[in-house]
Amino acid sequence: MNPARLGELLAMLLAAAPGTQASTPVTIEPTQIRASVDAVDRAKRTLTVRGPQGNPITLKVGPAVGSFAQVRSRDQLTLRYLESVAVLVRAPGDPPAPNETGPIEVVQRGHKPEGLVVHTLEVSGKVESVDLRKRTVILSNSDGHRLTLKVDPAVKRLQKVKPGDQVVVRQTENVAVDIQKP
Q1: pTM (whole model) above 0.70
Q2: 137, 129 contact by CB (below 8 A)
Q3: What are the structural domains of the chain?
Q4: What SS3 state is found at 34?
Q5: 15 or 81, which is more confident
Q6: Cα–Cα distance for residue pair 108/174, rounded to 1 Å
Q7: Of 50, 47, 74, which Cα lies nearest the Cα of 62?
């Protein structure tokens, strides 16, 4: 068997193996905030709200959130959500491994392992700071916009990331798990 074909087969086996990033759900501690609704997209099941600091937050709303149908623009809400989390940090020129692409499952900490499959997006930028104890990274993009990301414990290369590094980060969507009108 030629070496290239062997490499492809090995990559497929690793992508399908239990315990790899593709099959292991990401467990996230929920965050609770009071927010006002800017936009509701029923077809995509997303909400855009203004957080406590006036920052816009877009949330995917899972099918278990029954009160989504009653939410309107300008409503004031108390909501619990699973914050976006970085599940991959790599150098800009490095291609992702086969198990590092596509949707992943997120699970609320302390709940049965019944999660939601969410999309991920990649952002690139310059590392401003890294807090290994809190597992957070602050990135700035070419426009100077700053983004603070929590980093999943499964990301093993975080200790190698230093301020000034250019990186690509794959992050999960924010996911609403409970919506209440006060």
Answers
A1: no
A2: yes
A3: 28-82 (2.40.50), 84-172 (2.40.50)
A4: strand
A5: 81
A6: 12
A7: 47
- For 151, phi then psi, to 5°, come to -120, 125
3-class SS at 68? helix
CA distances to 7, 123, 124, 128, 130 from 146, in Å: 38, 11, 11, 9, 13
CB-CB neighbours of 158 under 10 Å: 17
Interval 121-145: pLDDT, tens: 888 899 999 999 999 999 998 888 8
- Tell me which of 46-60, 114-128, 135-149, 163-177 is least confident: 114-128
Mean pLDDT of 46-54: 91
Residues 6+ apart with CB under 8 A from 71: 37, 40, 47, 77, 179, 181
Cα–Cα dist 50/45, whole Å: 17
What's the rounded Cα separation, in Å, for the pair 153 and 133?
11
Burial class (CB in 10 A: 0-12, 13-18, 19+), 6: exposed
